[in-house]
Amino acid sequence: MKILFYMPHADAAAWLRDLARALPAAELREWQPGDTEPADFAIVWRPPREMLAGRDTLRAIFNLGAGVDAILALEREHPGTLPRNASLIRLEDTGMAAQMAEYVTHAVLRYQRRFDEYQVLQNERRWQVLAPHPLESFTVGILGLGVLGTHVARTLASFGLPVRGYSRSAKQIDGIATFAGDTQFDAFLDGVKVLVNLLPHTPDTESMLNARNFAKLAHGAYLVNIARGAHLVEADLLDALASGQLAAATLDVFREEPLPAAHPFWREPRITITPHISALTLREEGIAQIALKIDALTRGEPVSGVVNLARGY
Ligand code: NAP
Ligand code: GLV
């Protein structure tokens, strides 16, 4: 079995070493430009088009992340890039749900306990007590109730926060108020104090974080975007902060990454910026999941995490 690997900026030698341990029967190689030799499986993150195009022997492409938007964008721009018979399979959790829960819990409690405002007071050497936002009215709304969103929702609910979630199909999750589909979207947004985005980036979800939707949140709401930069209309966020409709935002993802030095977000003190680190791909966990799935596919068994190309996630 031949496996191609491609992950820019990663320690390729360490990945290939650990993949070889997990899949001792495999012939592994890191893809280099010009390599058109056949392979059975590809393990990739943001591959260039020429790595995938024309690879008719591929049985599956394993995406080294949860979001497959970059690969599907290649296919939209250059139809036929994805080999016809290859399944596209994403990572499911592999340690990302716990990281997301830590990140979002920190952001939400920072706003609820007003630590962001205490930092400003400290900078001004002012000793002043602020009343915390009442927990019971600090409603968190989570866009996306998939692998990551559901774990984040449960974690926040365990702090006593009122938590709502929104998805395409209806869900039932203990302790979480759930909303589904276009007809329930406005009811989901109504009165939300912290909007957390964990949707996949698809043509349907592009620019969903916009002025029209911010206006439906509680006045002085907060935004936490940890999904994709393309979900956010950046000018609408700056306007919403200027008007006070939004009080602050925590952003981990951006339309352009790295965020350019001249970008106005860097100069807005109410925006907290992290460099796409809310949930990192963990090598050990990622390889363990992919190896199990390659073994299952080799035995002719079905696997989970196969992307529905029409739906886009
Ligand atoms: P997932 O399991 O596929 O969950 C996606 C959720 O979004 C599902 O609940 C789905 O609804 C819902 N959804 C999709 N399209 C929708 C629409 N048009 N309207 C309403 N709901 C919609 O994905 P995941 O593993 O939780 O990951 C979510 C995203 O997080 C990834 O796609 C990626 O972009 C992002 N991410 C970011 C980082 C980072 O470091 N910043 C790390 C990992 C992942 P159904 O349940 O009804 O299908
Ligand atoms: C990271 O952004 C991922 O999609 O896993």
User: What's the end-to-end separation, in Å?
Assistant: 27 Å
Which CATH-level-2 architecture of the largest domain? 3-Layer(aba) Sandwich
Radius of gyration: 21 Å
Q: Hey, roughly how much beta strand do the residues contain?
A: 15-25%
Largest sheet: 7 strands, parallel
Class from secondary-structure proportions? alpha/beta
Question: Biggest sheet: strands side by side, in what order?
Answer: 8-7-6-9-10-11-12
Basic shape: elongated
Number of domains: 2
Tally of alpha and pi helices:
10
List the ions, cofactors and other small molecules found in this model.
NADP nicotinamide-adenine-dinucleotide phosphate, glyoxylic acid
CATH class category of the largest domain = Alpha Beta
Number of strands: 12
Could you list the spans in which at least 5 consecutive residues all have pLDDT below 50? none
User: In CATH terms, what is the fold-level topology of the largest domain?
Assistant: Rossmann fold
CATH superfamily of the largest domain: NAD(P)-binding Rossmann-like Domain
Q: What order do the SSEs take from the amino end to the carboxyl end, as H and E? A: EHEEHEHEHHEHEEHEHEHEEH
Overall pLDDT, averaged?
Answer: 97
In helices, the fraction of residues equals 25-40%
Walkthrough of the structure:
The chain has about 325 residues and is α/β, with parallel strands linked by helices. The protein folds into 2 domains: about 1-95 and about 280-300, NAD(P)-binding Rossmann-like Domain (Rossmann fold); about 95-275, Rossmann fold. The chain contains 10 helices and 12 strands. The strands form 2 sheets. It has a 7-stranded parallel sheet with strand order 8-7-6-9-10-11-12. Strands 2-1-3-4-5 form a 5-stranded parallel sheet, with helices on one face. Helix 3 (about 70-75) links the parallel strand 4 (about 60-65) and strand 5 (about 85-90). The protein is elongated, with a radius of gyration of 21 Å. Glyoxylic acid binds near residues 66 and 281. The site of NADP nicotinamide-adenine-dinucleotide phosphate has 30 residues, from helix 6 and strand 7.
